[in-house]
Design a protein that fits this description.
about 325 residues, mainly alpha, about 0% strand
């Protein structure tokens, strides 16, 4: 993978994870009664959720084919460390924190959640569960491009009729497969500057606005096939913006994107913690102030934790980075 290709992907992860944190903070403020359950908050929530998680599934698909070249066993073994292990570890950590903070955080948590995580994820950890489902689907279907595409079409078409969580996995499998199929083309696209990028960005944003309005106005769920045009335009606008982004903004979002796994794992505890502290300190319930501060803390605190854990060499142990592979032995080296 070229450095240029990796850079725009990191920027896209950075933009995506900031939107994820913002969306979860907004929902937390609405549940706490700080942000109103009004038309504008519902429209903002709908707009974000049409595309920010499909974006991450597409980005995951971009590198899946290259990773699978090591073989299915090695591919799945790596995913056990980077997806399954952090899923269980951090589900327990966050679950315990939320149980201990009962009465201060939104929602009621009991130890019952630990008995259901094999099939019903806790909060944001549904993404890790769904991502593992997509990787397994790719291993099973990926040797045939036609079979992979057919599987994606069937999965997306079946998603409205499935229970909540299987439905989300089926729906997002389509975006994961798009990432697999488009990986080679996007690698070339991401490395080449194009003077028409500004025009393409404008068209993507215009298409996104129109598609979101059409889906929202007709009452379709943001994770329904009817919202796919909105997701596609939103993802396209994000990727184009990240391809052309430079300067300080580009460096900041690339840095955030490189730590996106840690941010995703820890942001609920950080953002909700910031909201609770502000409420306990008597900060006036201004939705804008709470949105800005809790979103900032939800991104920045996990980044600080990431850097501290990296310095201590604990990232891989905690499932926040790939395990290091042993260096290959040179010919003649002893065992």
């Amino acid at each position: 993978m070229s450095g240029q290709r990796q850079l725009w992907q990191d920027r896209a992860k950075g933009v995506g994870i900031v939107l994820v944190v913002f969306g979860h903070v907004l929902r937390g403020l609405m549940a706490a009664g700080i942000a109103p359950d009004a038309a504008w908050t519902r429209a903002l929530d709908y707009t974000l959720y049409t595309f920010h998680m499909p974006l991450f599934f597409l980005l995951a698909g971009l590198n899946a084919e290259r990773s699978l070249r090591r073989g299915a066993a090695g591919f799945l073994r790596d995913k056990l460390h980077t997806i399954v292990w952090p899923y269980f570890l951090w589900s327990f950590v966050q679950g315990i924190v939320q149980i201990k903070m009962a009465g201060l955080v939104n929602g009621a948590f009991t130890s019952d959640v630990f008995r259901t995580i094999l099939y019903e994820p806790i909060a944001q950890f549904w993404f890790l569960y769904g991502l593992m489902v997509c990787h397994i689907g790719f291993v099973v279907l990926g040797r045939s491009r036609a079979l992979l595409l057919a599987g994606a079409v069937v999965a997306v078409a079946a998603s409205p009729f499935a229970p909540f969580y299987p439905g989300k996995y089926l729906f997002n499998f389509g975006f994961y497969v798009c990432g697999v199929v488009l990986s080679a083309r996007l690698a070339q696209w991401g490395a080449a500057r194009d003077g028409r990028d500004g025009a393409w960005l404008f068209l993507a944003l215009a298409g996104f606005a129109g598609a979101v309005w059409a889906a929202h106005a007709t009452g379709y769920d943001y994770a329904s096939p009817a919202a796919i045009p909105a997701a596609a335009f939103g993802i396209a606008a994000t990727l184009i913006a990240c391809k052309t982004m430079g300067g300080a903004f580009g460096r900041v979002f690339a840095t955030v994107g490189a730590m996106s796994m840690t941010i995703y794992i820890l942001h609920i505890m950080a953002g909700a913690g910031a909201r609770v502290v502000m409420m306990r300190l008597g900060v006036p319930h201004d939705p804008f102030v709470y949105l800005v501060v809790a979103t900032f803390v939800g991104v920045a605190a996990p980044m600080v934790a990431h850097m501290a854990l990296a310095r201590m060499g604990w990232l891989a142990t905690l499932g926040l980075a790939p395990a290091r592979r042993p260096a290959p032995r040179l010919a003649g080296q002893g065992a």
